[in-house]
Specification:
With 658 residues, this protein is α+β, with helices and mostly antiparallel strands. The strands form nine sheets. An eight-stranded mixed beta sheet has the order 6-5-4-1-8-10-11-13. Strands 2, 3, 7, 12, 27, 29, 32 and 33 form an eight-stranded mixed beta sheet that branches. The termini are far apart.
Length: 658
């Protein structure tokens, strides 16, 4: 990097946004593990937000990519790194690229190279391509956007956006750790603000809560509460227009930390708390995260010093010998081959059980008995996995086909005074505390400035403390590599922190095998499109009323086509328009919170598209219309664009019936 780029601001930063929304129809959604939860449309588009942080004094950079996705798999990481290498050589590598997910449970699945996560639908090339293409687009824009910037860091607390969904497991931890989290939640919220010429141009917030405000009954694509928080700051507050602003003035990302046992469902059941409506809960929980972040951003934020640095190591988590320094019982232990416990198939009660009715959190007597018999004849298995009631021996399944990942990256990046420990899993708050303390002690830095960046670069399910593991709640049963998984990760984190502190390299390690060439794409070829009998594509099947009061819901149904023909990435399936003299101005699209785009299959291969606009209470009086855009594949022909326009309707300031 040339020295001529240096300015009084030590750091250079580039930031950008791109669309990564996958297939909105008939794709299994990822997160809740339910085969019956398949996409039927879009409520809020998914986006990738990329940030390049560079220090020209030492010629190092870090690329942080926060994605509105359920999970990051090695499939995505490997393809992104491959594409970046083709474009930028060795500028971006596994060591300095951190790919993270917000962990929404309302995104299309089918983009992993491990079979467990693709469900019955199999691998979905279109969704995979949409994600990778969008990420690369965001990175390319951020790379070009690199400019001098001031980094500022602040911490706050948020106590009304999470609740501990596994209190019985949490309460097994030592008293000192329980007292560190007196409400059994991690309230720390951290904001990194990026300024240019004295004005904020971007922000990244970290806070621990699950992306499960939307329940397993929802089938519309959504970024959930963190997606809404980012949308609100960018679109509503800063006026970013995603359709026409490839280089927006402001980018806001809301990233995850150690949210493994943190639920947003404050009343203890799916879709419950603070209200009984999942859409409103999503908005409220997103607003609470935004409001605390915005308050921090508006207050005093000291300028960060410090350099940019990074370390990464690939480790086979099924075969780590953990020293007595980290095990807690003054003995050496070894992790085990991955295995899912009975409670993992039950799901988390606060956020939504799976369809497996025969399993429950905690003890499952029949499976417990079978596992005790197995442990009697396999001492090493017992030491690693007991008291887990093993139902899915992932290590055994991997011998026949790739079901779960065993070799994974663990990463530590430094951005000024902020340190992010990239863990490829869902870390509970107490497990996160131990990891953070391990790194902070070695580096000699404040604990608040060390964060666990969960859901990074790959996926290993959960990380619990050995004490929490004993309870075998959902999280413990989903800690695949057993009781010593967290101590193993602490040992690896210590190795990374020591190397970073000393300025020394870590040993070269081989990444997980690339499985791209072994994928069998799902059979996704839909039948040819036909409009409903008596109609043509784009015709209005159900008209809006003539007039509405501001704040009311407007609904229009069109004769549409199968939406997966063209995902309209970076574009839209709909527009809400307001008449402005002789022209129509677009005021909302399918990336806006107040719209929903819903698809359903009608008779004889027809498609019905319902567009709903929840007009805001402050909608100006005037004439409006709703437009639909799709793509039809007619019998024996190529894909052709189609569109439809509703009749005009009026929005009045007061009830038109009064």
């Amino acid at each position: 990097m040339p020295e001529t780029n240096y300015s009084p601001d030590r750091h250079l930063v580039g930031r950008a946004i791109a669309d990564i929304t996958g297939e909105p129809a008939e794709v299994g959604m990822l997160g809740y593990g339910r085969a019956d939860q398949k996409t039927t449309g879009i409520h809020l588009r998914l986006r990738s937000r990329a940030f390049v942080f560079a220090d020209p004094l030492v010629d190092r950079r870090v690329l942080l990519i926060v994605n509105d996705l359920p999970l990051i798999f090695s499939s995505i990481t490997q393809e992104v790194l491959r594409r970046l290498a083709q474009r930028y050589g060795d500028t971006y590598t596994a060591s300095n690229v951190m790919l993270t997910a917000t962990h929404t449970h309302c995104g299309p699945g089918g983009y992993s190279h491990h079979r467990l996560y693709n469900g019955a639908g199999g691998f979905r090339p279109r969704t995979f391509a949409a994600i990778v293409d969008g990420i690369i687009e965001a990175v390319e824009r951020a790379h070009e956007d690199l400019a001098p910037a001031t980094l500022r860091l602040a911490h706050g607390e948020l106590r009304e956006a999470s609740v501990n969904r596994s209190r019985a497991a949490f309460d097994r931890n030592p008293q000192e750790e329980r007292e560190f989290f007196p409400d059994a939640v991690d309230p720390q919220t951290t904001l990194l603000r990026i300024d240019r010429a004295g004005e904020p141009c971007a922000a990244v917030n970290w806070f621990a809560t699950h992306g499960t405000s939307m329940t397993n009954r929802n089938t519309l694509v959504s970024g959930d509460n963190k997606g809404y928080a980012a949308y609100h700051w960018e679109r509503v507050v800063e006026g970013v227009n995603y359709l026409v602003d490839p280089d927006p003035d402001f980018v806001a990302a809301f990233a995850q930390t150690n949210s493994g046992d943190m639920s947003p469902n404050l009343d203890g059941s799916p879709g419950s708390g603070p209200t009984g409506d999942e859409f409103e809960n999503t908005r409220v929980l997103g607003m609470r995260q935004y409001e605390v972040a915005a308050k921090l951003a508006a207050g005093y934020m000291p300028r960060m010093a410090g350099s940019i640095d990074h370390r990464c190591i690939h480790v086979d988590l099924s075969a780590v010998t953990v020293s007595a320094e980290f095990t807690g019982d003054e003995r050496e232990h070894r992790t085990g081959r991955p295995a899912g416990g009975a409670a993992a198939f039950a799901g988390a009660a606060f956020d939504g059980p799976t369809h497996w009715k025969t399993f429950r959190e905690g003890r499952n007597p029949g499976w417990d008995l079978l596992s005790r018999l197995a442990y009697r004849f396999a001492p090493s298995l017992r030491d690693a996995q007991a008291p887990k009631a093993i139902v899915a021996p992932g290590g055994l399944l991997n011998r026949f086909a790739p079901y779960v990942q065993e070799i994974v990256p663990v990463q530590l990046v430094q951005i000024g005074e902020l340190y992010l420990l990239g863990i490829p899993g869902e870390v509970t708050i107490t497990a996160g505390l131990r990891l953070r303390r391990t790194v902070a002690a070695i580096l000699g830095v404040e604990l608040t400035n060390v964060l666990v960046a969960g859901y990074s670069n790959a996926y290993i399910h959960y990380v619990t403390t050995p004490e929490e593991y004993e309870e075998q709640r959902y999280e413990g049963a989903s800690t695949l590599f057993g009781r010593w998984e967290l101590p193993a990760l602490q040992q690896i984190a210590a190795q990374l922190a020591t190397a970073l502190r000393d300025g020394s390299p870590v040993p070269a390690t081989a990444p997980a095998p690339d499985l791209a060439d072994s994928q069998q794409p799902a059979k996704t070829t839909p039948p040819a499109d036909f409009p409903p009998v008596g109609y043509d594509f784009g015709d209005v099947l159900s008209e809006p009323a003539a007039a509405y009061r501001a704040g009311e819901q407007v609904s229009v149904e069109f004769a549409g086509a199968y939406p997966n023909h063209d995902l309209h990435r970076g574009s839209t399936y709909l527009m809400v328009q307001r008449r402005d003299g002789e022209r129509w101005r677009t005021i909302a699209d399918d990336g806006d919170w107040e719209t929903t785009f819903s698809w359903s299959r009608g008779p004889a291969s027809s498609s019905h598209v319902t567009i709903v606009w929840h007009s805001p209470a402050d909608t100006p009086p005037g004439s409006y219309r709703i437009r639909y855009f799709g793509d039809a594949v007619k019998s024996g022909s190529d894909r052709v664009p189609i569109s439809g326009t509703s009749p005009e309707f009026r929005i009045d300031a007061e009830d038109p019936g009064e």
